[in-house]
Amino acid sequence: MEGPSLTDLIAFPKSEDGCFSSNLPPVFAFSESPSTGLEPGGQGAVAELQIHIVAAVPDGPHGPVWLKPLGQEATRKVTPEYQRTEVERLVQVLQNSANYQDPNPSVLIALRLAGNPFSLAERKLLEGLKENAVRNGASLSSGKLGLYVLALIASCEDPTRLLTSAQGTDTAPDLVTLLSNKLGQEMKNIEVKGHPLTTYYQVALALLGLCQQRSYISKSDVNTFTQAAMHDRFSFGHQFSVDTAAVAALALRCLQQGSYKPAESIRIASIKLSLQLFCAKTAPGTIGNLYSTGLAMQAFFANDKHIPSVVWDCRKTLQEVLAQVKQGAFQNPESASQILPPLVGKTYLDVDQVTCPKDVNNRPVPVLPAADSGEITVDYSVTDTLPGSQYFNRSITLKVPGGTTLLQVMRRAQEKQPEYFKFTEIITSWGPFITSIADIEATDTARTYWQFLNGPLPIPVGVAEYQPSDGEHIVAKFTTY
After folding, report:
1. For the chain, which residues score pLDDT lower than 70?
2. How many CB atoms neighbour CB 299 within 10 A?
3. What is the pLDDT of residues 444-473, one digit of tens each?
4. Model confidence over 216-266: pLDDT tens digits?
5. Contact predicate 154/145, CB 8 Å
6. DSSP category for residue 67
7. Listed residue (402, 430, 425) closest to 476, CA to CA
8. Omega prior to 105 cis, within 30 of 0
9. Which domains does the chain have, with CATH numbers?
């Protein structure tokens, strides 16, 4: 039986090929030939890689048994019935959040995709989002506005003519036009300064919102975005960002389905991101870290033609995620909202397929318990070694109860030595975001931020959720993106 012939062409920087050839089984092998690249005018030579699947099952009766070629769709695995309790826990987290947080579009999207009757919590979220969009729509970031559009589509609302119960029809704002303008500002900044006004994660959400609304997106804007994907711009803190790549892959798939141009650039960038996400798989089954897995699963479901089902069997990922939910992970509504859709076999591309029943679910929502245990020792350091800054490095050892969050550790350090460990924060949908430590302030203009590390690795969740273990060394590092 002959093996598969050439299955596709893709342009990659040469530094990218090692990832795929190191994953066994199967192995993606590449043969390089010169190319003038994808940009108009052939600017920036890259390597054109011919992708073959070369892994084989050696014990076939007539020689190697070749795996299925690229192009065969993977089956979306959904949570088995006997594990639906874990899904219900996530739904409860999201419904509970409607009572104590500002309205979050990601939460409403996830609840609508879960397919349950339109609950009181969802109605409250919807009205809150609409009222906030009317009052503060112009101040929302491009990505947040993109999520607002997706949430409204999932709720059978028209984002081009937003009406609230306390508003007349003559003042209804057009969120789609506003989103289109914000995307234009992002693209202009990329052209002038080489990076978006915010981040590529936000740009991807903006594109996804406009695409799901079937709005106009210029060919040049699409090309700018695909070139960013091809030239590895989707990183944060000098590390490949699974979250950004996943949302970008969702946006590109939407653009493909909507027949946006340039079609070939969209196709090739989509394949590249799918393979990069595949390379972010970990042994336990997560993609990147646990909390980036939800968006990455959505990207794989949406782009299942690029990764064959035999290459990525999502059952392992699904079981790992469900096990973590059972152990109490995903208590933050933002993280829960990203993992819930793939657990029910949905992605953000399904928001326009949601039905909107009129019945209201009045079931009470139980409150989930928290855990606590023993006393632990945590080492906490704050460092600033950026070029041109005044060198700063301070450490403290603290004894705290088991189950203490990193934010609580930081507050304890601030109480003991405020001159070195005082900090400021702002509240976001992901929880507290640290803006300064020891009067060293992160700014958008300098593109600086505080990164929190456990040893050499970034912590996988926010400071209000992360619980250090006994003997752990947490480092707050002032760095750039």
Report:
1. 1-82, 163-172, 237, 308-313, 356-373, 429
2. 32
3. 888 889 999 998 888 888 888 888 999 999
4. 999 999 999 999 999 999 987 678 999 999 999 999 999 999 999 999 999
5. no
6. P
7. 425
8. no
9. 8-66 (no CATH), 81-353 (1.50.10.20), 375-480 (2.170.130.30)
What tokens were used for 161? Answer: 């003519």
- Global pTM reads 0.67
Cα dihedral 208→210→211→213 (10° resolution): 120
Yes or no: say if 453 and 475 are a contact pair by the CB < 8 Å rule. yes
Q: How far apart are CA 48 and CA 51, in angstroms?
A: 10
Contact, 383 vs 474, CB < 8 A?
no
Residue that has been written with the tokens 């990193």 in this structure: 406
CA distance linking residue 348 with residue 73, whole number of Å: 18
Q: Which residue has the tokens 């001159």?
A: 419
Dist CA 449 CA 441 (whole Å): 8
CA within 13 Å, CB half, 209: 33
- Dihedral sign of CA atoms 342, 344, 350, 352 in order: negative
